[in-house]
Specification:
The protein is of the alpha/beta class. Helix 3 (108-121) packs across helix 4, helix 3 runs parallel beside helix 5 and helix 5 (154-175) packs across helix 6 (185-202). The radius of gyration is 22 Å and the shape is globular. It is built from eleven helices and 20 strands. The longest helix is centred in the middle third of the chain and has 22 residues, at 154-175. A ten-stranded mixed beta sheet has the order 9-7-5-2-10-1-11-15-19-20, sandwiched between helices. The structure holds guanosine-5'-diphosphate, 6-O-phosphoryl inosine monophosphate and magnesium ion. Residues 8, 12-18, 40-42, 44, 300, 304, 335-336, 338-339, 417-420 line the site of guanosine-5'-diphosphate. Residues 8, 11-13, 38-41, 126-129, 131, 133-134, 228-230, 233, 244-245, 278-279, 304 line the site of 6-O-phosphoryl inosine monophosphate.
Length: 433
Protein backbone atom coordinates (compact mmCIF):
# COMPACT_ATOMS: atom_id res chain seq x y z
CA UNK A 1 0.00 0.00 0.00
CA UNK A 2 1.56 3.28 -1.11
CA UNK A 3 -0.18 5.89 0.92
CA UNK A 4 -2.78 6.55 3.58
CA UNK A 5 -4.70 9.79 4.00
CA UNK A 6 -5.67 10.53 7.59
CA UNK A 7 -8.48 13.04 8.08
CA UNK A 8 -10.44 14.42 11.02
CA UNK A 9 -14.02 13.16 10.79
CA UNK A 10 -15.75 15.77 12.94
CA UNK A 11 -14.97 19.45 13.65
CA UNK A 12 -11.24 19.04 14.27
CA UNK A 13 -9.21 18.17 17.38
CA UNK A 14 -10.08 14.49 17.11
CA UNK A 15 -6.55 13.50 18.14
CA UNK A 16 -5.03 13.40 14.64
CA UNK A 17 -1.58 14.41 15.91
CA UNK A 18 -1.41 11.54 18.34
CA UNK A 19 -2.57 9.05 15.72
CA UNK A 20 -0.15 10.35 13.06
CA UNK A 21 2.70 9.97 15.56
CA UNK A 22 1.44 6.42 16.19
CA UNK A 23 1.47 5.46 12.53
CA UNK A 24 4.50 7.50 11.45
CA UNK A 25 6.95 4.67 12.11
CA UNK A 26 5.24 2.67 9.35
CA UNK A 27 5.64 5.48 6.82
CA UNK A 28 8.59 7.05 5.03
CA UNK A 29 6.83 10.40 4.74
CA UNK A 30 4.32 12.40 6.77
CA UNK A 31 2.83 15.22 4.70
CA UNK A 32 0.53 18.15 5.44
CA UNK A 33 -1.59 19.17 2.42
CA UNK A 34 -3.98 21.90 3.59
CA UNK A 35 -4.70 24.37 6.36
CA UNK A 36 -2.03 26.25 8.24
CA UNK A 37 -1.24 27.10 11.83
CA UNK A 38 -4.95 27.17 12.66
CA UNK A 39 -4.19 23.49 13.38
CA UNK A 40 -2.89 22.41 16.77
CA UNK A 41 -1.80 18.78 16.85
CA UNK A 42 -0.74 17.42 20.23
CA UNK A 43 1.83 14.65 20.73
CA UNK A 44 2.72 13.26 24.13
CA UNK A 45 5.83 11.08 24.25
CA UNK A 46 7.15 9.79 27.58
CA UNK A 47 5.12 12.47 29.32
CA UNK A 48 6.61 15.27 27.20
CA UNK A 49 4.00 17.30 25.32
CA UNK A 50 4.66 18.83 21.89
CA UNK A 51 2.04 20.91 20.08
CA UNK A 52 2.63 21.26 16.34
CA UNK A 53 0.85 23.85 14.23
CA UNK A 54 2.68 23.52 10.91
CA UNK A 55 5.39 20.88 11.07
CA UNK A 56 3.92 17.41 10.34
CA UNK A 57 3.36 15.13 13.33
CA UNK A 58 5.91 12.58 12.10
CA UNK A 59 8.83 14.84 13.03
CA UNK A 60 9.53 13.10 16.37
CA UNK A 61 10.48 9.90 14.48
CA UNK A 62 14.08 10.49 13.32
CA UNK A 63 13.82 8.24 10.26
CA UNK A 64 10.66 9.81 8.89
CA UNK A 65 10.75 12.59 6.28
CA UNK A 66 8.16 15.36 6.55
CA UNK A 67 6.72 17.69 3.94
CA UNK A 68 4.50 20.75 3.82
CA UNK A 69 2.68 20.68 0.49
CA UNK A 70 1.62 23.47 -1.84
CA UNK A 71 -1.91 23.38 -0.42
CA UNK A 72 -0.79 24.57 3.02
CA UNK A 73 -0.71 28.28 3.92
CA UNK A 74 2.56 29.00 5.71
CA UNK A 75 3.24 31.69 8.29
CA UNK A 76 7.02 31.78 7.92
CA UNK A 77 7.53 33.31 11.36
CA UNK A 78 5.50 30.54 13.00
CA UNK A 79 7.45 27.94 11.02
CA UNK A 80 10.77 29.36 12.21
CA UNK A 81 9.53 29.49 15.81
CA UNK A 82 8.30 25.92 15.62
CA UNK A 83 11.62 24.71 14.20
CA UNK A 84 13.34 26.51 17.09
CA UNK A 85 11.06 24.79 19.60
CA UNK A 86 11.91 21.41 18.03
CA UNK A 87 15.64 22.19 18.02
CA UNK A 88 15.41 22.96 21.75
CA UNK A 89 14.01 19.47 22.22
CA UNK A 90 16.94 18.03 20.27
CA UNK A 91 14.89 17.22 17.16
CA UNK A 92 16.85 17.56 13.92
CA UNK A 93 14.69 18.99 11.14
CA UNK A 94 17.11 20.08 8.41
CA UNK A 95 17.34 17.53 5.63
CA UNK A 96 14.13 15.91 6.93
CA UNK A 97 11.55 18.65 6.43
CA UNK A 98 10.65 19.89 2.96
CA UNK A 99 8.45 22.92 2.33
CA UNK A 100 6.89 23.38 -1.11
CA UNK A 101 7.92 26.39 -3.20
CA UNK A 102 4.29 26.57 -4.22
CA UNK A 103 2.87 27.06 -0.71
CA UNK A 104 1.27 30.46 -0.12
CA UNK A 105 2.43 32.67 2.72
CA UNK A 106 0.32 34.06 5.51
CA UNK A 107 1.47 37.65 5.95
CA UNK A 108 0.78 40.05 8.84
CA UNK A 109 -1.98 41.79 6.88
CA UNK A 110 -3.89 38.49 6.54
CA UNK A 111 -3.94 38.16 10.29
CA UNK A 112 -4.99 41.75 10.85
CA UNK A 113 -7.78 41.42 8.27
CA UNK A 114 -8.98 38.13 9.81
CA UNK A 115 -9.31 39.80 13.22
CA UNK A 116 -10.85 42.98 11.79
CA UNK A 117 -13.50 41.05 9.87
CA UNK A 118 -14.38 38.97 12.89
CA UNK A 119 -14.78 42.13 14.96
CA UNK A 120 -16.99 43.65 12.26
CA UNK A 121 -19.22 40.56 12.12
CA UNK A 122 -19.92 40.93 15.84
CA UNK A 123 -22.34 38.25 17.03
CA UNK A 124 -22.26 36.67 13.56
CA UNK A 125 -18.54 36.01 13.74
CA UNK A 126 -17.18 32.65 12.54
CA UNK A 127 -14.98 32.22 15.59
CA UNK A 128 -11.83 31.81 13.50
CA UNK A 129 -8.48 31.10 15.09
CA UNK A 130 -7.37 34.61 14.05
CA UNK A 131 -4.33 33.23 12.27
CA UNK A 132 -5.08 34.84 8.88
CA UNK A 133 -6.08 31.59 7.22
CA UNK A 134 -9.16 32.86 5.34
CA UNK A 135 -7.55 36.03 3.93
CA UNK A 136 -4.44 34.08 2.84
CA UNK A 137 -6.53 31.54 0.91
CA UNK A 138 -8.56 34.42 -0.57
CA UNK A 139 -5.39 35.95 -1.98
CA UNK A 140 -4.33 32.57 -3.37
CA UNK A 141 -7.61 32.10 -5.23
CA UNK A 142 -7.62 35.73 -6.37
CA UNK A 143 -4.12 35.18 -7.86
CA UNK A 144 -2.47 37.88 -5.78
CA UNK A 145 -0.74 35.77 -3.13
CA UNK A 146 2.92 35.65 -2.19
CA UNK A 147 4.44 32.19 -2.36
CA UNK A 148 7.49 30.54 -0.84
CA UNK A 149 9.21 30.72 -4.24
CA UNK A 150 8.85 34.53 -4.26
CA UNK A 151 10.90 35.00 -1.09
CA UNK A 152 14.21 34.73 -2.93
CA UNK A 153 13.56 38.04 -4.72
CA UNK A 154 13.22 41.14 -2.53
CA UNK A 155 11.81 43.29 -5.34
CA UNK A 156 9.15 40.74 -6.07
CA UNK A 157 8.07 40.50 -2.43
CA UNK A 158 8.08 44.29 -2.13
CA UNK A 159 5.99 44.67 -5.30
CA UNK A 160 3.44 42.04 -4.30
CA UNK A 161 3.04 43.33 -0.75
CA UNK A 162 2.68 46.97 -1.86
CA UNK A 163 0.21 46.08 -4.61
CA UNK A 164 -1.90 44.16 -2.13
CA UNK A 165 -1.79 46.83 0.56
CA UNK A 166 -3.00 49.53 -1.83
CA UNK A 167 -6.41 47.90 -1.61
CA UNK A 168 -6.18 46.34 1.85
CA UNK A 169 -5.18 49.57 3.54
CA UNK A 170 -8.35 51.13 2.17
CA UNK A 171 -10.37 48.25 3.58
CA UNK A 172 -8.63 48.43 6.95
CA UNK A 173 -9.34 52.17 7.04
CA UNK A 174 -13.05 51.31 6.90
CA UNK A 175 -12.66 49.14 10.02
CA UNK A 176 -11.13 52.14 11.73
CA UNK A 177 -10.22 50.40 14.99
CA UNK A 178 -6.91 50.84 16.84
CA UNK A 179 -5.93 47.17 16.38
CA UNK A 180 -7.09 46.98 12.79
CA UNK A 181 -5.66 50.14 11.28
CA UNK A 182 -3.96 50.44 7.88
CA UNK A 183 -0.25 49.54 7.60
CA UNK A 184 2.22 52.42 7.72
CA UNK A 185 5.18 52.75 5.34
CA UNK A 186 7.54 51.69 8.15
CA UNK A 187 5.46 48.57 8.77
CA UNK A 188 5.45 47.69 5.08
CA UNK A 189 9.25 47.90 4.91
CA UNK A 190 9.48 45.79 8.09
CA UNK A 191 7.17 43.10 6.63
CA UNK A 192 9.18 42.90 3.42
CA UNK A 193 12.58 42.89 5.13
CA UNK A 194 11.58 40.36 7.76
CA UNK A 195 10.11 37.96 5.24
CA UNK A 196 13.05 38.17 2.88
CA UNK A 197 15.30 37.40 5.85
CA UNK A 198 13.04 34.56 6.98
CA UNK A 199 13.22 33.25 3.41
CA UNK A 200 17.02 33.24 3.58
CA UNK A 201 17.10 31.43 6.92
CA UNK A 202 14.46 28.89 5.92
CA UNK A 203 15.89 28.33 2.44
CA UNK A 204 17.44 24.92 3.29
CA UNK A 205 13.88 23.62 3.83
CA UNK A 206 12.39 24.87 0.54
CA UNK A 207 11.97 22.17 -2.05
CA UNK A 208 10.06 20.76 -4.99
CA UNK A 209 7.82 18.67 -2.76
CA UNK A 210 5.66 17.21 -5.55
CA UNK A 211 8.72 15.87 -7.32
CA UNK A 212 10.26 14.45 -4.15
CA UNK A 213 7.05 12.68 -3.19
CA UNK A 214 6.57 11.33 -6.71
CA UNK A 215 10.08 9.93 -6.76
CA UNK A 216 9.49 8.50 -3.30
CA UNK A 217 6.33 6.72 -4.38
CA UNK A 218 8.10 5.37 -7.48
CA UNK A 219 10.79 3.95 -5.19
CA UNK A 220 8.15 2.23 -3.05
CA UNK A 221 8.12 4.72 -0.18
CA UNK A 222 4.98 5.02 1.92
CA UNK A 223 3.26 8.31 2.53
CA UNK A 224 1.01 9.25 5.41
CA UNK A 225 -0.96 12.39 4.60
CA UNK A 226 -1.88 14.36 7.73
CA UNK A 227 -5.16 16.21 7.38
CA UNK A 228 -5.82 19.27 9.50
CA UNK A 229 -9.21 20.42 10.84
CA UNK A 230 -12.04 17.99 10.06
CA UNK A 231 -14.55 17.05 7.37
CA UNK A 232 -17.32 19.19 8.87
CA UNK A 233 -15.02 22.24 8.60
CA UNK A 234 -14.40 21.64 4.85
CA UNK A 235 -15.01 24.76 2.76
CA UNK A 236 -17.32 22.84 0.36
CA UNK A 237 -18.70 19.99 2.43
CA UNK A 238 -18.72 21.43 5.94
CA UNK A 239 -21.20 23.55 7.86
CA UNK A 240 -20.70 26.63 5.67
CA UNK A 241 -20.10 29.46 6.48
CA UNK A 242 -18.87 28.13 9.84
CA UNK A 243 -15.94 26.34 8.24
CA UNK A 244 -12.28 26.88 7.50
CA UNK A 245 -11.07 28.11 4.10
CA UNK A 246 -9.60 24.91 2.68
CA UNK A 247 -10.82 21.50 1.55
CA UNK A 248 -10.14 19.20 4.45
CA UNK A 249 -11.43 16.06 2.73
CA UNK A 250 -9.05 13.33 1.63
CA UNK A 251 -9.14 14.11 -2.10
CA UNK A 252 -7.34 17.38 -1.46
CA UNK A 253 -4.27 15.36 -0.43
CA UNK A 254 -3.59 15.01 -4.17
CA UNK A 255 -4.14 18.67 -5.13
CA UNK A 256 -2.41 19.92 -2.01
CA UNK A 257 0.81 18.03 -2.73
CA UNK A 258 0.95 17.60 -6.49
CA UNK A 259 0.47 13.83 -6.60
CA UNK A 260 -2.11 12.04 -8.70
CA UNK A 261 -5.29 10.75 -7.08
CA UNK A 262 -4.27 7.16 -7.76
CA UNK A 263 -1.48 7.69 -5.25
CA UNK A 264 -4.09 7.95 -2.48
CA UNK A 265 -4.70 4.33 -1.69
CA UNK A 266 -6.73 4.43 1.52
CA UNK A 267 -8.43 6.84 3.88
CA UNK A 268 -8.50 6.66 7.67
CA UNK A 269 -10.87 8.90 9.60
CA UNK A 270 -10.02 9.92 13.14
CA UNK A 271 -13.05 10.42 15.37
CA UNK A 272 -13.47 11.28 19.01
CA UNK A 273 -15.74 8.95 21.02
CA UNK A 274 -17.95 12.04 21.57
CA UNK A 275 -18.13 15.37 19.74
CA UNK A 276 -16.42 18.74 20.19
CA UNK A 277 -16.31 21.96 18.25
CA UNK A 278 -14.39 25.23 18.69
CA UNK A 279 -15.73 28.40 17.13
CA UNK A 280 -19.32 29.01 16.16
CA UNK A 281 -21.76 27.09 13.98
CA UNK A 282 -24.45 24.43 14.30
CA UNK A 283 -23.81 21.52 16.67
CA UNK A 284 -26.96 19.40 17.12
CA UNK A 285 -25.70 17.19 19.98
CA UNK A 286 -24.09 20.02 21.97
CA UNK A 287 -24.51 19.77 25.75
CA UNK A 288 -24.85 23.24 27.21
CA UNK A 289 -25.41 21.79 30.69
CA UNK A 290 -23.32 20.20 33.42
CA UNK A 291 -22.71 17.05 31.39
CA UNK A 292 -20.97 19.17 28.75
CA UNK A 293 -18.79 20.56 31.50
CA UNK A 294 -18.02 17.02 32.72
CA UNK A 295 -16.85 16.03 29.21
CA UNK A 296 -14.78 19.23 28.86
CA UNK A 297 -13.04 18.57 32.14
CA UNK A 298 -12.51 14.83 31.67
CA UNK A 299 -11.28 15.30 28.09
CA UNK A 300 -9.33 18.49 28.86
CA UNK A 301 -11.20 20.09 25.98
CA UNK A 302 -9.41 23.39 25.50
CA UNK A 303 -8.07 24.45 22.08
CA UNK A 304 -4.45 23.49 21.35
CA UNK A 305 -4.10 26.65 19.23
CA UNK A 306 -6.20 29.32 20.94
CA UNK A 307 -6.83 27.82 24.38
CA UNK A 308 -10.59 28.42 23.91
CA UNK A 309 -12.89 25.99 25.77
CA UNK A 310 -14.22 23.49 23.24
CA UNK A 311 -17.97 23.01 23.00
CA UNK A 312 -18.77 19.39 23.94
CA UNK A 313 -21.59 16.99 23.11
CA UNK A 314 -22.57 13.38 22.52
CA UNK A 315 -21.49 11.31 19.56
CA UNK A 316 -23.38 12.23 16.38
CA UNK A 317 -23.62 9.27 14.01
CA UNK A 318 -25.65 11.21 11.43
CA UNK A 319 -22.85 13.73 11.01
CA UNK A 320 -20.24 10.96 11.03
CA UNK A 321 -22.05 8.94 8.37
CA UNK A 322 -21.96 12.02 6.18
CA UNK A 323 -18.25 12.56 6.89
CA UNK A 324 -17.47 8.94 6.09
CA UNK A 325 -19.20 9.37 2.73
CA UNK A 326 -17.74 12.69 1.57
CA UNK A 327 -14.21 11.86 2.69
CA UNK A 328 -14.26 8.26 1.44
CA UNK A 329 -13.37 6.89 4.87
CA UNK A 330 -13.05 3.09 5.09
CA UNK A 331 -11.31 2.74 8.43
CA UNK A 332 -11.78 4.70 11.62
CA UNK A 333 -9.62 5.44 14.61
CA UNK A 334 -11.69 6.13 17.72
CA UNK A 335 -9.91 8.39 20.20
CA UNK A 336 -10.58 9.47 23.78
CA UNK A 337 -12.75 6.47 24.59
CA UNK A 338 -11.20 6.66 28.08
CA UNK A 339 -12.86 10.04 28.62
CA UNK A 340 -16.29 8.35 28.65
CA UNK A 341 -15.20 5.92 31.39
CA UNK A 342 -17.29 6.26 34.53
CA UNK A 343 -20.32 7.92 32.89
CA UNK A 344 -23.54 6.05 33.79
CA UNK A 345 -25.00 6.01 30.27
CA UNK A 346 -23.93 7.15 26.82
CA UNK A 347 -26.57 8.66 24.55
CA UNK A 348 -25.62 8.33 20.86
CA UNK A 349 -27.39 10.40 18.21
CA UNK A 350 -28.73 7.97 15.58
CA UNK A 351 -31.09 10.32 13.73
CA UNK A 352 -32.31 13.90 13.61
CA UNK A 353 -35.86 15.10 13.86
CA UNK A 354 -36.90 18.07 11.76
CA UNK A 355 -40.44 19.45 11.83
CA UNK A 356 -41.67 16.13 13.23
CA UNK A 357 -39.89 14.14 10.51
CA UNK A 358 -37.16 11.64 11.41
CA UNK A 359 -34.06 11.69 9.21
CA UNK A 360 -30.99 9.49 9.33
CA UNK A 361 -29.09 11.33 6.59
CA UNK A 362 -27.44 14.71 6.96
CA UNK A 363 -29.81 17.49 5.80
CA UNK A 364 -29.37 18.69 2.20
CA UNK A 365 -29.75 22.24 3.37
CA UNK A 366 -27.11 23.11 5.95
CA UNK A 367 -29.37 25.78 7.45
CA UNK A 368 -31.67 22.99 8.69
CA UNK A 369 -28.84 21.85 10.97
CA UNK A 370 -29.67 24.75 13.28
CA UNK A 371 -33.19 23.38 13.76
CA UNK A 372 -32.74 19.60 13.91
CA UNK A 373 -33.27 17.79 17.22
CA UNK A 374 -31.05 14.80 17.93
CA UNK A 375 -32.72 11.41 18.43
CA UNK A 376 -30.69 9.42 20.95
CA UNK A 377 -30.23 5.75 21.59
CA UNK A 378 -28.85 5.17 25.08
CA UNK A 379 -25.90 2.84 25.47
CA UNK A 380 -24.76 1.56 28.86
CA UNK A 381 -21.68 3.22 30.32
CA UNK A 382 -18.43 1.49 31.27
CA UNK A 383 -15.75 1.92 33.90
CA UNK A 384 -12.26 3.43 33.49
CA UNK A 385 -10.34 1.88 30.59
CA UNK A 386 -7.15 3.95 30.43
CA UNK A 387 -4.91 0.96 31.22
CA UNK A 388 -6.46 -1.46 28.69
CA UNK A 389 -4.25 -2.45 25.72
CA UNK A 390 -6.23 -5.29 24.09
CA UNK A 391 -9.71 -5.13 22.59
CA UNK A 392 -10.77 -8.31 24.38
CA UNK A 393 -9.83 -6.74 27.73
CA UNK A 394 -12.24 -3.84 27.27
CA UNK A 395 -15.46 -4.01 29.29
CA UNK A 396 -18.32 -5.52 27.27
CA UNK A 397 -20.16 -2.18 27.22
CA UNK A 398 -17.12 -0.43 25.67
CA UNK A 399 -16.84 -3.14 23.01
CA UNK A 400 -20.56 -2.76 22.31
CA UNK A 401 -20.15 1.01 21.96
CA UNK A 402 -17.41 0.49 19.36
CA UNK A 403 -19.35 -2.20 17.46
CA UNK A 404 -22.39 0.04 17.42
CA UNK A 405 -20.32 2.81 15.78
CA UNK A 406 -18.71 0.47 13.24
CA UNK A 407 -22.06 -1.09 12.25
CA UNK A 408 -23.87 2.24 11.98
CA UNK A 409 -21.14 3.69 9.76
CA UNK A 410 -20.23 0.59 7.75
CA UNK A 411 -16.53 0.96 8.51
CA UNK A 412 -13.79 -1.01 10.21
CA UNK A 413 -12.28 0.31 13.42
CA UNK A 414 -8.51 0.16 13.07
CA UNK A 415 -7.36 1.62 16.38
CA UNK A 416 -8.84 2.71 19.69
CA UNK A 417 -7.04 5.38 21.67
CA UNK A 418 -7.44 5.39 25.45
CA UNK A 419 -5.00 8.10 26.54
CA UNK A 420 -2.98 11.03 25.19
CA UNK A 421 0.43 9.34 25.44
CA UNK A 422 2.23 7.40 22.72
CA UNK A 423 1.33 3.73 23.11
CA UNK A 424 -1.88 4.39 25.01
CA UNK A 425 -4.05 2.60 22.50
CA UNK A 426 -5.17 -0.79 21.20
CA UNK A 427 -4.76 -1.79 17.59
CA UNK A 428 -7.34 -3.91 15.78
CA UNK A 429 -6.25 -3.65 12.15
CA UNK A 430 -3.07 -2.33 10.52
CA UNK A 431 -4.17 0.25 7.94
CA UNK A 432 -0.82 -0.04 6.16
CA UNK A 433 -1.08 -3.80 5.68
P1 LIG B 1 -5.82 17.18 16.67
O1 LIG B 1 -5.94 18.62 16.32
O2 LIG B 1 -6.80 16.31 15.96
O3 LIG B 1 -4.41 16.66 16.53
O4 LIG B 1 -6.17 17.07 18.22
P2 LIG B 1 -5.66 18.05 19.40
O5 LIG B 1 -4.25 17.74 19.71
O6 LIG B 1 -6.03 19.45 19.09
O7 LIG B 1 -6.63 17.62 20.59
C1 LIG B 1 -6.67 16.31 21.06
C2 LIG B 1 -6.35 16.34 22.57
O8 LIG B 1 -6.69 15.10 23.14
C3 LIG B 1 -4.89 16.53 22.86
O9 LIG B 1 -4.76 17.20 24.08
C4 LIG B 1 -4.37 15.10 22.97
O10 LIG B 1 -3.20 15.01 23.78
C5 LIG B 1 -5.53 14.42 23.62
N1 LIG B 1 -5.75 13.02 23.26
C6 LIG B 1 -5.54 12.39 22.06
N2 LIG B 1 -5.96 11.10 22.13
C7 LIG B 1 -6.44 10.92 23.38
C8 LIG B 1 -7.04 9.80 24.06
O11 LIG B 1 -7.26 8.74 23.50
N3 LIG B 1 -7.44 9.99 25.35
C9 LIG B 1 -7.25 11.19 26.00
N4 LIG B 1 -7.67 11.28 27.25
N5 LIG B 1 -6.68 12.25 25.38
C10 LIG B 1 -6.29 12.12 24.10
P1 LIG C 1 -6.95 20.88 14.06
O1 LIG C 1 -6.10 20.52 12.86
C1 LIG C 1 -10.62 22.73 15.49
C2 LIG C 1 -12.11 26.20 13.28
C3 LIG C 1 -12.11 27.52 14.03
C4 LIG C 1 -13.33 28.18 13.40
C5 LIG C 1 -13.21 27.74 11.94
C6 LIG C 1 -12.54 28.75 11.02
O2 LIG C 1 -6.20 21.14 15.29
O3 LIG C 1 -8.07 19.91 14.22
P2 LIG C 1 -10.01 29.45 10.66
O4 LIG C 1 -9.02 30.07 11.60
O5 LIG C 1 -9.57 28.15 10.09
O6 LIG C 1 -10.48 30.41 9.60
O7 LIG C 1 -11.31 29.17 11.58
O8 LIG C 1 -12.46 26.54 11.94
N1 LIG C 1 -10.80 25.51 13.24
C7 LIG C 1 -10.51 24.44 13.98
N2 LIG C 1 -11.21 23.81 14.93
N3 LIG C 1 -9.42 22.24 15.12
C8 LIG C 1 -8.71 22.84 14.13
O9 LIG C 1 -7.57 22.32 13.65
C9 LIG C 1 -9.23 24.03 13.56
N4 LIG C 1 -8.78 24.87 12.61
C10 LIG C 1 -9.76 25.76 12.41
O10 LIG C 1 -12.28 27.32 15.41
O11 LIG C 1 -14.50 27.61 13.92
MG1 LIG D 1 -6.17 20.45 17.22
Amino acid sequence: MASVVLVGSQWGDEGKGKVVDRYAERADWVVRYQGGNNAGHTLVVDGDKTVLHLVPSGILHPNVKCAIGNGVVVDAQILEDELGMLADKGVITEGRLFVSYGAHLILPYHKRLDLAREALRGVDKIGTTGRGIGPAYEDKIARRGVRVADLADRDRVDGLVRQRLKELNAILAVHNAPDHRPFTEAEIVEIVDRHVELGQRLRPYFSNVADRLFRGVEAGERILFEGAQGVLLDIDHGTYPYVTSSNTVSSNAATGTGLGFHHLTSVIGVMKAYTTRVGRGPFPTELSDETGEVLRKAGNEFGATTGRPRRCGWLDLVALRYAVRVAGIRQLVVTKLDVLGGLPELPVCVAYELDGRRMTEYPDNVHDLHRVKPVYEKMPGFEEIGAVRRFEDLPAAARDYLRFIADALGVTIALVSVGPGRGEDLELVDPFA
